[in-house]
Give the backbone structure.
Amino acid sequence: MEKGQLIEQLDKFFKAGSVAVIGASSKPKKIGYEILRNLSQYDYKGRVYPINPKADKILNLKCYTSIQDVPDEIDLVVIAVSSVYTPQILEECGQKSVRACVIVSGGFKELGKEHAKIEEETLEIAKKYGIRIIGPNCIGIFDSETKIDTFFQSHDRMLRPQAGPVAFITQSGTFGATMLEWIAESELGISKFVSYGNRSDVDEADLIRYLNVDHDTKVITIYLESVGNGRKLVDAAKEALHTKPIVVLKSGRTELGSKSALSHTGQLAGSYAVCEGVFKQTGLIMAENLEELFDMTKALATQPIARGNRVAMVTNGAGPCVMAVDECVKRKIGLSEFKEETVKKLKSVLPSYCIVGNPVDLTGSATAHEYELTMEILLKDSNVDLLMPFFVFQDTPLDEKILDIIPEFQKYGKPIVCCASGGAYTKKQSKILEKKGVPVYPIPERAVAAAYSLIRYGKVLETKDQK
Amino acid sequence: MEKGQLIEQLDKFFKAGSVAVIGASSKPKKIGYEILRNLSQYDYKGRVYPINPKADKILNLKCYTSIQDVPDEIDLVVIAVSSVYTPQILEECGQKSVRACVIVSGGFKELGKEHAKIEEETLEIAKKYGIRIIGPNCIGIFDSETKIDTFFQSHDRMLRPQAGPVAFITQSGTFGATMLEWIAESELGISKFVSYGNRSDVDEADLIRYLNVDHDTKVITIYLESVGNGRKLVDAAKEALHTKPIVVLKSGRTELGSKSALSHTGQLAGSYAVCEGVFKQTGLIMAENLEELFDMTKALATQPIARGNRVAMVTNGAGPCVMAVDECVKRKIGLSEFKEETVKKLKSVLPSYCIVGNPVDLTGSATAHEYELTMEILLKDSNVDLLMPFFVFQDTPLDEKILDIIPEFQKYGKPIVCCASGGAYTKKQSKILEKKGVPVYPIPERAVAAAYSLIRYGKVLETKDQK
C-alpha cells in the first residue's frame, strides 16, 4: 500500500472529527456507557453519536437506532456490542461510508473456531467497503493532540498522559492501560496509543509506517504476543529505525505461554528464539518485561544515544554499583577506563576517603558539590560514553543542590542515567530530576537496562550510517 | 560459641539501655550530628551520651571528652570518627567495660592494605576485651521494639518501618536504607535490622543464629557481597530453616563485580556459581535483584507456604497472564490442571464470554462477584496449590467489593499472590489489599517470583520433615 493512502486511512482514527459509539449503554460501569462518557465528557472536541435503539438520550446526547440514521458524516465507529452483530454493523458502516472502525468487543477468534468465522466475515465486509479495523478484543486508541479516547476505563481509575514523545502500540489492552499510566505519572507523555488485540486488520507494520512520519513521535514502543506479517513488520521497522528507536516486549516465549496467547488474542505466538533473533538483527531493542519496556522507553525518549559502550559510575553508596557492574558484564557493557588525567584531577579535588575507581565512591559523606566536581571531570573524559550517577538521597550530607546540578550536565550531550532507591523522599527527588529530563531508576539492574538501550540504539544508528 | 553467650552479646546491641556516640558533632547534616539526633530526639528511650571534647552541649545533651568520663554504664558505643582513632577508642571502650560497638565510619580494609591494618588492630583490641563489633563501614542497627537506631539518615529522608515479621541483614547500607523504606511503605514491618559493612566481627551466621530464636522474626532476609565463614553460615542457616525462611541476594557475581565489592566492603566476592549452588542446596531462597528480594520477603512474611507447585490464575485482562505463564515455565512452576468438576462448575456460573482455562479469563466485563465465584471454586480444587489473581483495576466494571472478597479467601489456607499494574488508583487498591495481608505485585514476573518463593520454601520444609 502507498504510504499516502495508509496515512489517510489511519488519520481517520486519530484525527476523527466525528465518532459513533455502537452499543452505547445508559448504565454506568457498563463498557458501552464508559466509552461514551470518556468520548463526550472530557477533552475530545469532535461530535459524538450514541447508537442504541432502546434509549432516547444518554449523557444528554440524542441516541440513534442505527448508524444510518445519524444526520452527519461519521469518521470513526467504536463497536461495543456482542460479536454476533458485528458483520451486520460493518455492512451498515460501509453503506454509511465509514472508513475506520475500532472493535472493542471480544468474542472473536480468541474463543476458537466458531467465533473465528465471525471475525473473518466481519473482515470480508470491511474489505469490501475499504474500512480499516483496529481490534477486535482491545481498548482501542488515544491521541494526546485530538484527545480521541475509545477506552472504557474511567478517568478516576486510569490516568491519561499529556502530550509527549512516546507512541505505544500493544496487543494487550491491560499492558496498554499500565503503560499509559506509567507514562502519565512519569510525565513522559505520549503521542499516540493503539491497543489492537486480535489484529484482524491494522497491524504493527501499518502502525510503525504511520508513526514513522508522525512528527510528535520520537520513540515507538511495542508489546507483542504474536507476529502477524513478519516480513512486513521487519521492513517497516528497518525504515523507521533510521530516525526512531523501536523497543519491543514479546511474550508467548514458551509453548504454554504461546497457548495462553492463543486464547487471549487468537494467535499462537510462534518461536520466540526465531522472532528474537530476527528482531535483534533488524535493530529493534528487546525488553524482558513490562517494567524494562517502560524503562528503556524513558531513556530513549529523554537522553541522547551513547556513542560507545563505556560507562562511568559515581555514587555516595557503592552497594548498588556492585550489582550494576555485575549487570553491565552480563549485558556486555564496558566500564570506562579513565584517563590518567581524569584520575589525577579526581584525586586532587576529592576528599581522601573517596575511592577513585569506576565507580567513583564519594561515600555517605558526599555533598552535591563533590558530585558536581566529579561529574564535570568524568564527562570531559573521552573514554566515558555514558554517565550513571547513583544517589543515596537518604544520606543527609547530600544537599538538594544536586537537583539543579545533574540536569545541567546534559549540556555535554552524553547520556545520563540515574539510579536511586527508596521511599517517599527519594521518589520525590527522583521525580524532580525526571521533570528536568533526567531519567531515574529504582534498582541498578533497571538503570543498566536503560543504559543498554541507549548504547544499543547508538550502535544501530552507527551501522545504518555506514551502509 | 554457646548460643546463650551469643544472645547475651548481641542483646547488648539491640536492647542497649545506654548509648555513647563517639564523634558526636554540633553541625547539622554531619554524620556525627545526625546519629545523635536520631538516637536522642525520636523514639529510643535509653540514655544517650555524646562524646566530643570540643563541645559542651549538643542537642541539649551534655558532652563528654572521653567515654571514660561518662558517669554511667555504657551498653553500646557508636563510632563516627576517622578510622585512625578507632584502636585507641576501642581500648577506652574496653576499660570502660563496653561490650558492643557499632563502627559507622569507613576508612578500613575497603581502602586497601594500610587501612586493613587499622581494622585488624581494632579487632585485636576488641577481642582482648570481649567487645563485639558491627561494621565498620556501615549504617548499623535498628530494632523496632527498643527503637535503637544508629542511622545517620534523617527521619524526613528515610522512613523507619513499624514492628513486623522481617529481619534484614545487609552488607550494603544503601540497600539497607532502601529495604527499610520499602518495608515501611508496604506496612510489612521489621523486627531487627543490621547493616554490617566490612563484617570485621559479627557476621551473617551470628545474626542468623540470633534471629532464629527471636520471636518477632518470621523471615530472615539477607544482602551479601562476600561470604565470611561459609561453613558457619550454612550451619546456622540449616538450623534456622526449620522454622524460618531465609531469602538471599548475593552480588559480586562477575569478576568485575567482585572487584567492586572489594573496594566497597573490603572482600572479594568469590565464585557466585559455587555460592549459589551451596546456598540453594542448603534451602536458602535466592533472589536476583533487590526488588525480587523484597517481593519474595513480602510473600513469605504474609502468606502460608504452598504445598505443591501447581498454580491457578484468574484475571479480567489476560495479557499479563501470558507473561506469567512464560515465567512459570522458566521457573518450573506448573499450571494446575483443573478437575472436571471445577471446569463444569466454572462454566455453569460464569457468563459465556469468559474463557475457562488456566488462566480463567473473566474479560474486561468482570465484576467482583465473578471473581468471588471463580476463586471459591478454584480454591476448593485439590489440584490448586497457589492462587494468582490478576486485576485490571482500571477496568470500570470491576467494583470495589473485590477488596473485601480477596482477603477473605485466605481462610482456605492456600497462598494467594496478586498482580495489578498501573497508576495511582491501582496502587491505592493494591495497598488496601496489602493492609489486609494479601501481597500485590506490579508486573507478572515479580508476582511469579513471589509465588516461587512460597513453593520453594514449602519444598524445603517438606524435605526437612522427611529427614
Remarks:
- Chain B touches chain A through 85 residues (CB under 8 Å).
- The first strand of chain B starts at residue 18 and ends at 22.
- The CA atoms of residues 341 and 381 of chain B lie 9 Å apart.
